[in-house]
Amino acid sequence: MKEVVFVVFLVLLVIVSDAEVTKPNNGNFLRCLHDRTRQENPITEALYTPDNSTFVSTYVSYTKNKRYSNPNDTNLITIIAAKHESHVQATVVCAKSNGVQIRIRSGGHDYEGLSYISSVPFVVLDMHNLRSITIDVSSKKAKVQAGATLGEIYTKIAEASKTLAFAAGVCPTLGAGGHISGGGYGNLIRKYGISVDHVVDAQLVDVNGKILNRASMGEDLFWAIRGGGGASFGVILSWTINLVEVPKTITVFKVNKTLEQGATDVLYKWQLVSSKLPKELFLRAMPQVAKGAKSKGKTIAVNFYAQFLGSSTKLMKIINKNLPELGLKREDCYEMSWLNTTTFWADYPVGTPTSVLLKRPLEPPGAFFKSKSDYVKKPIPKEGMKKIWKTMLKFNNVWMQWNPYGGVMDQIPANATAFPHRKGNLFKIQYFALWIDANATDANLGLMKELYEMAKPYVSSNPREAFLNYRDIDVGSNPSGETNIEEADIYGSKYFLGNWKRLMNIKAKYDPKNFFRYEQSIPPVRAM
Ligand SMILES: Cc1cc2nc3c(=O)[nH]c(=O)nc-3n(C[C@H](O)[C@H](O)[C@H](O)COP(=O)(O)OP(=O)(O)OC[C@H]3O[C@@H](n4cnc5c(N)ncnc54)[C@H](O)[C@@H]3O)c2cc1C
Ligand SMILES: *[C@@H]1O[C@H](CO)[C@@H](O)[C@H](O)[C@H]1NC(C)=O
Ligand SMILES: *[C@@H]1O[C@H](CO)[C@@H](O)[C@H](O)[C@H]1NC(C)=O
Ligand SMILES: *[C@@H]1O[C@H](CO)[C@@H](O)[C@H](O)[C@H]1NC(C)=O
Ligand SMILES: *[C@@H]1O[C@H](CO)[C@@H](O)[C@H](O)[C@H]1NC(C)=O
Ligand SMILES: *[C@@H]1O[C@H](CO)[C@@H](O)[C@H](O)[C@H]1NC(C)=O
Ligand SMILES: *[C@@H]1O[C@H](CO)[C@@H](O)[C@H](O)[C@H]1NC(C)=O
Question: Which range is the signal sequence, renumbered to this chain (predicted)?
Answer without folding.
Answer: 1-19
